[in-house]
Every structure is written in C-alpha cells, then in structure tokens.
Fold protein-L-isoaspartate(D-aspartate) O-methyltransferase.
Amino acid sequence: MVNASLVLSPRVIETMRAVDRKHYVRSTADAYIDAPMAIGHGATISAPHMHATALEHLQDVLQPGMKALDVGCGSGYLTACMAHLVGACGRVVGVDHIPALVNLARQNIARDHPDFLATNDSSDSGGNAANVDMAKPRVRLEVADGRVGFPAEQPYDCIHVGAAAGARPTALISQLKAPGKLFAPVVCAPHDLDQVIILYEKDYQGCVTETELMGVRYVPLTDPERQTRGF
C-alpha cells in the first residue's frame, strides 16, 4: 500500500504495522490480502486499502489524547488502529449491535494489544488530557445500535463508520466535536450497493461540509436481524 501511494503518512504506516491484521482475521494465511473478509454474523473486516484510506483522512483528528467512536467495530482492527493513534491518554469507543462481534473484537484486541483494554495510567496526554478520564482504559467496547452513535461518551473528535448508512447520519454528526470529522459510507441510491464514502467535516462554528471521496461497497448499517439473515 505504501508503494501504491495509498498510505503516505508516517503515523499511519507505523500504526498499520503496529496493529497486526493477522490477529483480526479467521485465516492468518490470508491476513494481508487486500480484500474484505468475512468474520461471521453477516459482517466483514474491510480490505486493508480501505482501512488505510480511512486512517489517512482521519489522522488529524486522531491525535494523542483525542476521543474517537468506531461504529460497527466488527473484528476490532480499526478500533485498535485508532487507539494506537490517540495514544495512552486517548479514548476509542467501539460499538456493534451483535454481542458476538463485540466479544470477538475484545478477544482480538486482547491478543494483539492487551494494554489498550487495561486501565490507563500514562501521563502522556499530548495536550488533550481533558478529553478522557485517566482511570478508564484506552478502548471501550459496547453492544449498541451504531445508527444512533454512542451518546454516553460524546462529543467525539473523530467518528468512523464501518457499514453503509441508509441516509445522512445526522445522529452521528450531532455527536462530533467542533471541529471534528466523520468518515462514513452512505447509500446514494435506492439500492444498498450504490454507496459512496463521505467525509463530513464540522468546523469551529459547527458548520458541516461534505466531501464525496469514492464509490464503495460495504455491508449495510442495519438492525441485527437483517444483518444475520444476509441482509
């Protein structure tokens, strides 16, 4: 991905090396193939190039001490990448509406970076210590309907959505800090397969701009029943 210029930032390169994808996929032999892979329960882990794209666009709101929300945390891979970027005094909340996937994410992160789930005792705040409670672990994983975000810990500097929203994700935008960024695939036509990544950017005054980045194909951001029966 570096050779293909998909990853240009040294921070993102270092992060994707530090968070080993082999701990988040079913088959370690296929861990580094640039393709999405099924993880069960109608969910997938996105292709590495999509993780790289998301991190490149969000890295400036994933600085040490910042707070992020990962909607549809699935395998836990991108949650862990975000946690690596925000550092020991940052905070990442990962939510999924399927309990088995939340458990999977917790197991995967515990295997790869158990310190992310341990109580935070570092003083390296990067100037943003006010964003987090130092007694809390760097990563919090919860069963929740990601379509409504996770209001209990709002506002967030950064929100990533790992499934395609059916419309403009207003509830998530409202949980962004000013400034803040939201990276989300959104259905752009009546059919679920017509999707585009939109980067929502909220400025200091709370005004939101939208930038279409690319066409994509993600599983829908939907209810558990629809997801597990194959949409």
Remarks:
- Residues 10-228 form a domain with the Rossmann fold fold (CATH 3.40.50.150).
